[in-house]
Design brief:
The structure holds two protein chains of two kinds. Helices cover 23% and strands 28% of the residues of chain A. Chain A has helices at 20-33, 56-63, 93-97, 149-153, 157-166, 194-203, 298-305, 317-330, 344-354, and strands at residues 38-44, 47-53, 70-71, 79-85, 108-112, 116-121, 126-131, 136-141, 169-173, 175-179, 182-187, 207-210, 213-217, 223-225, 230-233, 259-262, 274-285, 292-295, 333-338. Chain A is of the alpha+beta class. In chain A, helix 7 (298-305) runs antiparallel to helix 8. By secondary structure, chain B is an alpha+beta fold. Chain B starts with 6 loop residues before the first strand and ends in a 21-residue tail after the last strand. Classes of the chains: A alpha+beta, B alpha+beta. Strand 5 of chain A pairs parallel with strand 7 of chain B.
């Protein structure tokens, strides 16, 4: 076992040292030679994604975040992701360690072509790749056991963002909650109250698809799709949600970080995989006691959504922009003025969703 | 700034959308995004149609006293659009020459002119600077340590 890996050198003339692509093809062949210890398939935005783990440690670190979307293992997958670290793929050590380009330590390097996308993030030497021809992706990191706390709550975010972007489903920085009548997308800058709103809704019996990152799919009617079975909350706000305490991974939370909830720890909670969208809510903390909604312009809503374009590959940003533009043109937008009475927030959202689409009275759809 | 220059929106890096009351623009490279309000959207549209900064006051105000009053405001606004790389000088005069046949003035005669406003937002840019993306081409070699003479260079 073990293809010998020869690191490339320069921007190479043809026939000389291996290029990025040639070097990757070596590592790709090697990764396919390796066994995987477990696998699971998840339905994300209606698409089957199969994760093949190189070690049980890797599976333990990643699989909890997707557990609400797990489906039968024999479901035909649109994307297969091979996940390895240097314990399960030891010959890849040279591949990761040789990566030392000029520039700042935190830079990300991207090679994006019609056949392949290669991403290297230097600080932790994370390598991700997608072979578009075979719909196979690769996630290679030095040590799965050392995966950062927040990444365990949102694993594979970059890879999923880029892959789904190519499928016309765009990651957005937003929370998503709802009920049987549909969902509301809650947008706003960091600290605006998205997570608190989403967790308050979950506490109050509304459906919860996401607190911070979700996928948007346009169509006859736009929909929002859950990715992670998790949530994040500032540690000082934990006391507000005692019922969710068993889901909080507090013990290994680094100081100063938000605390992650892993909802698979609470069998009574089942997140909602998707909602048909009814409204966009721009969250903003107010001085009022009661939370309330007031209509805002599409431009104001779009300003809150447009920055999500930058979560996408540079080449995909215009398409994400078009998707978000279509979204604000199809949905009514409201300012969600968050009051100090936490329970008033889900009540205001429920009242909005229960209205008929024309805004006149109760919605009696089942 | 040469007020006679003709400009167009730099569509190689700017994506934008006009709403009822404002235009939202995103510079896909820098991470800045912008809101144009009041008459800013109209000025941008006229520039993109080929009006020079010289033409704009006449188109907006005719030959009235207001033309002189607002000329500086409009010119400074155009300069700001250029400084932010939202507009770029046209490589050839392929405009529709609206400035040569301006038609009736848009303002005056009871229609108040509200100066254009350009708001810039930089919260995303800060994130991009923390985690910049270097794009490399397929033919590049595997990047290695600087100083040993065999490092690839990023395209940007």
């Amino acid at each position: 076992m073990g293809t010998r890996l020869n690191p490339g050198t320069e921007p190479t003339p043809p026939g000389c040292a291996p290029t990025w692509v040639e070097y990757f093809r070596d590592i790709q062949a090697y990764l396919h030679e390796l066994a995987f210890t477990s696998a699971a398939t998840y339905s994300i935005a209606g698409t089957a994604i199969r994760l093949q783990f190189g070690s049980e440690c890797f599976a333990e670190q990643v699989s909890h975040a997707f557990s609400h979307l797990e489906i039968a293992p024999d479901s035909g997958a649109s994307l297969t992701v091979l996940l390895h670290d240097l314990a399960s793929a030891p010959y890849a050590a040279e591949f990761l360690q040789e990566f030392s380009p000029p520039g700042e330590e935190s830079d990300m390097w991207l090679m994006d072509s019609p056949d392949l996308m290669l991403i290297l993030q230097r600080p932790r030497r994370v390598f991700a790749a997608v072979d578009w021809n075979t719909n196979t992706a690769y996630w290679l990191i030095p040590d799965a056991g050392a995966m950062p706390y927040l990444e365990r709550a949102r694993p594979l975010k970059l890879l999923l963002t880029y892959w789904f972007g190519m499928q016309g489903r765009y990651l957005i920085h937003a929370a998503a909650v709802g009920n049987r009548h549909g969902g509301a997308l809650v947008v706003g800058h960091g600290g605006a109250g998205k997570s608190t709103t989403a967790l308050s809704c979950l506490n109050a019996g509304l459906g919860y698809a996401a607190d911070d990152h979700c996928l948007i799919r346009l169509g006859a009617s736009p929909s929002v799709h859950s990715i992670y079975d998790t949530g994040l909350l500032a540690a000082e706000d934990l006391y507000r949600f005692p019922a969710l305490a068993p889901a909080a991974a507090s013990s290994d939370c680094p100081a100063g970080e938000k605390v992650a909830f892993f909802f698979d720890r609470l069998p009574a909670i089942r997140l909602t995989p998707s909602f048909s969208l009814r409204a966009i809510l721009l969250a903003r903390i107010s001085n009022s006691r009661q939370s309330r909604l007031r209509g805002i312009s599409r431009g104001e809503a779009f300003k809150a959504i447009a920055p999500s374009c930058f979560m996408h590959l540079p080449a995909a940003r215009p398409r994400a922009f078009e998707c978000f533009n279509a979204l604000v043109r199809q949905l009514p937008a409201y300012m969600l003025e968050l009051g100090s009475e936490r329970n008033s927030t889900p009540a205001a959202i429920r009242e909005l969703l229960d209205r008929s689409p024309d805004g006149k009275g109760a919605n009696h759809a089942s | 700034m040469n007020a006679g220059k003709r400009y167009q929106i730099d569509r190689t890096r700017i994506i934008f959308e006009q709403f009822e009351d404002e235009t939202v623009l995103v510079n896909t490279e820098t991470g800045y995004y912008y809101s144009l309000s009041n008459t800013g959207s109209e000025v941008l549209r006229l520039l993109d149609e080929g009006c020079s900064a010289n033409d704009l006051p006449t188109i907006l105000f005719g030959s009235s006293e207001a033309t002189r009053q607002w000329r500086d405001v409009v010119e400074k606004f155009v300069e700001r659009l250029a400084d932010e790389s939202i507009i770029t000088v046209r490589s050839s005069d392929n405009s529709n020459h609206i400035g040569r046949n301006p038609g009736p003035a848009r303002y005056g005669e009871g229609i108040e002119y509200v100066p254009p406003v350009l708001d810039r937002f930089d919260d995303v840019r800060d994130l991009l600077l923390i985690d910049p993306i270097h794009q490399v081409d397929q033919e590049y070699g595997w990047p290695k340590e600087m100083g040993n003479g065999n490092s690839s260079k990023p395209r940007n």
